[in-house]
Amino acid sequence: MKVSAEIDLSRPAKERILEAAARRFSSQSYDNTGLRDIAADAHVDVAYVHRAFGSKAGLFRQVLQSVVSPDGIKAVFSAPGDQLPERLARRVVRHAHARGAGEMGAFEVAMQSSSSIEARATVLEFVEDGFLLPLTEQLGHSDRARAVLITALLAGFDIMRSVIGAESVTTLDDEWLERALAQLIRHAAALDAPPVAAGEKAP
Fold this sequence. Notes:
By secondary structure, the protein is mainly α.
C-alpha cells in the first residue's frame, strides 16, 4: 500500500518516520505494516528505523504518543480535581478540531491494529500508563472501575465522532457536548463502587 501524499523531506528523519508510520498504522493493520515500507515512505534506510526506535512495537508506541499529544493529557490531569470533568470533556470535544484535515488520531491507529495481539498489548499498556492510572489517582478511589467507565465513555464518543463520523454526533453543538460530557463524567466519578466478585477482597 502506498501512502496518499509525499512526506516533506526537509523535516528531520525521525519526524518523517513517525509521520510515515502514523499514516501506515492508521490505514492498515499492524501485522500488514512493515518497517521497510515505513522506511521507504520516509526516505530513510530501514536500519536507521531500527536504530531510532528499536522495533516495530517501539515505533508503534511512539506513534501513539505522537498523535495523542502527551503534554495536553498531562495538562488535563494537572488541573484541580473539581475541574477534571470539564477539562476532560473539553479535551475530547476539541481535540478532533485541533487536528488538521487528514491527520490521524490514536483511535484510528488503535482500531486498525486491534486484531494484532502485539499491538493490542501496546495499546492497553499505553492507555493504562497514560490515562487510567492518572485518572484513577485524580478520582481518589481505591478501585479503578470508575476510571475505566469514564475512559470507555470518552473513547466511544471519540470513535463515533472522529473515526466513524456519525452525523448524529458531528452536528451537535460543541459547547453543549462539553457540558453534557462533563456531567456524565461527574456522574460516573460519583458512582458507588462495583460489587466485589466472589473470592475477591474489597479494596
